[in-house]
Amino acid sequence: MTRGQQDVYGWWRKSSSGKVLGDLKDCMESLAEHCLLSAQGGVRNATLRILSLSDGCVNNSRAVPSSVLLARAFASLDKNAFPRDLKRVKIFGADVKNPRWKRVQSLMQASWVPPWLELQHVHLDNETHFGPQLHESFAGSSLHHLEKFDIILMRQGLCYCKDHSFDCLPPEKLEVTGVKGDGGCGEDGPSGTYVLEPIFRNGRPSYKKGGRFVLYWRPHLRDWVLEEYDGFLEEMGHDWRFVWANVVKDCGIPACAQEPWHVWDGKTYVMDRGVSCAVKGPWSSYERRPPHACKCCGGISLHAEAIESFMGRVAAVLDERQPKAFAFLHSGHYQGLQTEVKEFHSEMESAAERFNSTKTSFAATLLRKDGCEETTPYWQCIDGLLLSSRLA
Q1: Rg for the chain (alpha carbons), in Å?
Q2: Section 339-356 average pLDDT
């Protein structure tokens, strides 16, 4: 599932679902189609109930809530493709920043909402039990009994996006491995130890190896680039430069760019997960933060006990009578050094194991990203958690 904020100023006024969905159209329509598979078969006039966690504030004038994106995707689908017995789809966008109203806000009057689709928004804190909060939100309405869902989604939330490398002095040395120059990965090539330059480039630290290779930030392309240049030709007025590798990630130093690098293979630039950049030696100004000291974007502490507790709160409002019910908790990106990211994912694995050791109707599965190879570090493969009915 694609993460990322969809910015459309005045999104609630737009009649065109295509304009609101933008680049997320295919992704959200595919998600809507997958949600239809969870509709209860054999139940007349069935209603598909969906809860979207960490949804985004309904009062934000620019950022479109995930529930609105999903509702737009449902409205774009051909109704004939729906299961025969499915009559209604109810989507509830839940976010701690939504107003604390006794009755949820309804967008039923919007012109783009078909009569079989209902979209509402509730205030929900991920750190406390969901049932009482939902009961309070629906008190006095015809939906007061609706506290269980067929599908629970969190498109963004189990991620950690704060980059602490901006808040401290940069490390003195970085170690680049896996970039093969003309002479392979030897001492004369682009791989090796890079030393901090005394002057920043483009507002961020830059690093140099010998007199030929430099690693710096390019703001116009939003990437870190490893270039080779010829100092002699530069002195003669010739600007000769060659890009050996780059990584597209906005971060304080390239060692915090936990994304695949692209390298020159002699013919073109290709992704190479064997390339890495790490801090070499001490980094005294950087305060390492263990998982229990970090909260994800969904407000959950990133240690196993807290994640397991959150999974339990999710499972408590997932309909155990519905064999096709599921919860997809997307993890997304984790910002930090390699050791920190490894710890985050290790805690998530431990949380899934702890959850599966309890007696619940659901089992937790750790999801892995598509396209991962045997050489890909496991902590770059995790895509989130799936809760689904236990196999008999």
Answers
A1: 24
A2: 90
